[in-house]
Amino acid sequence: MKFYVFVIFIFIYGCSSSVPNEHALQIESLKSELIKTKALAEDAIEQISKLEKKLSKKITITDSLIVEHKKETLLLRASDAFQKGNYALVTKKYKNAIKYYKKTIELRPNDAHAYNNLGNVYKELKNYSKAIVAYQNAIMLKPDYASAYYNLGIVYQKSNNFDIALESYRKAARLAHGGVQKWLKDGGYYW
To answer: What is the per-residue pLDDT for 71?
Structure first.
């Protein structure tokens, strides 16, 4: 019986000591797997960070290309409207010319030539007050715009504002508008 007790004792002791060892091995295995997984996760996070930076750069480049494309499109639309306005002016379709020059100005607000040509349309329609405003806008945008001064002189002359007309012609002449220089010389005026 002693022998049986001893065998049972050894069996129980062996079982009890093997259970914790088995769990300890599983725990060590899980720890090792966790360390490997953490390393993989850290690498993945680093890779994600790099990819996010690359993506951000590409988005910035794409955005700038889109903005540039929009600008180019606006310029093309403005140029198209300006050319249509010129055609309408030459063909005496003044309402269309006004529409196209205003569209040009809407798309390209600093276009002194569009304002000048809009003034030419109003001049043809004998709407001198609107022509004056258009020419003044052209001059404001381009202070050395001799044609706008010349056209402004014509409108002031047609509206019997001879002194202001003469001053506009003189400014145009100083800016070397050949037609004005000849006209002033023929009239005995010098600048």
So the answer is: 83
